[in-house]
Amino acid sequence: LSFQLNTAELRALDNVREAFSGMNETLDSGKQRESFMKNNKTPTDIMNIMDITMRRLVKMSKKLPAFNELSNEGKFALLKGGMVEMLTVRGVTRYDASSNSWKTPVVPDQYNVPVSMFDQLNMDCRDEQKHRFMQFVSALHEDLRKNELAISLIMLIVLFSHRDNVNSPNDRILIDKHHRDYSALLFRYLESLYGEDARKFQEILPRALELLHVISDHSITLFMGTVKTEEAEPLPREFFKTD
Ligand SMILES: C[C@H](CCC[C@H](C)C(=O)O)[C@H]1CC[C@H]2[C@@H]3CC=C4C=C(O)CC[C@]4(C)[C@H]3CC[C@]12C
Question: Which of 41, 50, 216 has the most ligand 1 atoms within 8 A of CB, as the residue to mutate?
């Protein structure tokens, strides 16, 4: 039984790689770079750093043929519903256990973001959220965490899982279809790498995505009362209330 990918699957994977190709571009200028270079990053700095990832995820979605089939209302609803989940998945891939920080090719290593930044956030939920994030890191199997293409497919499965916020019947049909297609493509890709062993991912992924949903649902007030609103970028403030 060959697990070899067929040409349609290989082309679909190339489309995914292409859509995500801008995620790791180095950051050259602007306010965000300053936020990265500060030794003691404040919650406002974290917001301006998240702005970079969020903007790149929006740009990624616009490069996806599947996403562009949707109405503008449908596109907005998916990004609204899936942004924090995709951000969190990004956080797992950038998480460096030895330094307990997020490292990124976007800036030189010394400008990493310490996970201890959670300790400056809203005391009502910062400890639970930090704990949930660490749980999610271990819930995503090493083989998945270290595989950029698998992570990209997981982000797309997450993005196309928010059809409940969408009203148009045509959008809902398309979203369900792409959710099924990206899920199938991920498992075919994993089969092409691990053969029969890929079955283990069929069990662990749904549980990890359930935890991801809980993280996202509890993130909204995490930065509440800790950010200088006028100094923070507007996009992250659409997902994390600041006052
Ligand atoms: C991945 C990112 C660092 C690298 C940023 C860089 C532009 C890149 O994308 O490579 C870190 C910085 C702040 C982190 C969030 C902070 C609070 C969070 C609060 C939660 O509840 C979940 C996780 C998040 C969203 C963190 C995800 C990873 C982020 C975006």
Answer: 50
